[in-house]
């Protein structure tokens, strides 16, 4: 018999807040975390804006010695995981460490450390790069450092599926608990790719918005959208087997009930025609949860603000939801945060958990121009109070990776 899985802790570090409460306040207040890039000089670059963290200092959360050994993406992931564990009130020493896992994604890993050490190598010789260069850089080390910090000795892994990674991580963790392999898992994603090379690489492939207006750059589903805006940060959940959570008197935010995946197997960056792959992931998630489409109240869309994604995700929702497609609320919070790549699914899962808790649907902010190819109920500009029972979160990544997860308001039934 499949076991029930619940969310007992959440943590976030985003362009609109350095913890869950501040991030959620930013959502409630329709805050845009996108601004002119501060971390490096963009005077010779086409792209000028990004969703950077604000007033963030890693040493306020982590020991100074540890910070020197970690790339920013690892720092972000560990800080959000610490918040989630604290929120869960999990007593680490009293649980079975062999059944405690970590599934944390990053799309790119330690890009900043690669750039910094390459420059150092050119100046001083490549034998003089940091001895921590490799563990700062490799993508699995966020999961590894989190596992070390909390003595998680079960499965510790890192799905690397580009912008679907955070959602795949949460889904994979969910399955491992539901199928009996783990009791508790820290799951989510982290990313820190707002660097000259990161911005330059996405600019070169024409993926980023070149708008210099922070309020008119990440505009999901808007007819004038012209590319995504890079964000950074982390989002983490503590997922727990229901009886394990009840036995320790844990606060239960909600239940996780469905996970669906698919691969377009079509193109390295472009989505499959008519959103076929995204639709399959949503259908698979609904089937996994034994739900009908009309039971979903809200979809947190991938909604990247690129011409192709938003059009084809709209088509995918229509394929998966049929007659219910125009009745379900669909919004993208990337107008608030930008696109946080491998962290996006983790951050957006946290927002879905908060949406269920508060019965509040986040808005698609900065929306101005209707697009007939994106004609769903996108909750434009103003969030909506509405009773929510089931919410879905979508993530679609380069390589054709598609992932959908479903959360349910918790009940004893």
UniProtKB/TrEMBL annotation:
Domain of life, per lineage: Bacteria
State the name under which the record lists this protein: 3-oxoacyl-[acyl-carrier-protein] synthase 2
Function summary: Involved in the type II fatty acid elongation cycle. Catalyzes the elongation of a wide range of acyl-ACP by the addition of two carbons from malonyl-ACP to an acyl acceptor. Can efficiently catalyze the conversion of palmitoleoyl-ACP (cis-hexadec-9-enoyl-ACP) to cis-vaccenoyl-ACP (cis-octadec-11-enoyl-ACP), an essential step in the thermal regulation of fatty acid composition.
Look up the record and report any one GO term of the cellular component aspect: cytosol
Q: What is its EC number?
A: 2.3.1.179
Q: Biological process GO annotation list?
A: fatty acid biosynthetic process
Pfam family membership, one: Ketoacyl-synt_C
Q: Give the pathway annotation.
A: Lipid metabolism; fatty acid biosynthesis
Q: What is the uppermost EC class here?
A: transferase
Q: Which Gene3D superfamilies match?
A: 3.40.47.10
Q: Which reaction does it catalyse?
A: (9Z)-hexadecenoyl-[ACP] + malonyl-[ACP] + H(+) = 3-oxo-(11Z)-octadecenoyl-[ACP] + holo-[ACP] + CO2; a fatty acyl-[ACP] + malonyl-[ACP] + H(+) = a 3-oxoacyl-[ACP] + holo-[ACP] + CO2
Q: Name the UniProt key words of this record, in alphabetical order.
A: Acyltransferase, Fatty acid biosynthesis, Fatty acid metabolism, Lipid biosynthesis, Lipid metabolism, Transferase
Ketosynthase family 3 (KS3) domain spans which residues? Answer: 2-409
The text of the family note is:
Belongs to the thiolase-like superfamily. Beta-ketoacyl-ACP synthases family.
GO MF, one term, reads: 3-oxoacyl-[acyl-carrier-protein] synthase activity
Entry-linked InterPro entries: 3-oxoacyl-ACP_synth-2 (IPR017568), Beta-ketoacyl_synthase (IPR000794), Ketoacyl_synth_C (IPR014031), Ketoacyl_synth_N (IPR014030), PKS_Beta-ketoAc_synthase_dom (IPR020841), Thiolase-like (IPR016039)
The entry's active site is 163 (for beta-ketoacyl synthase activity)
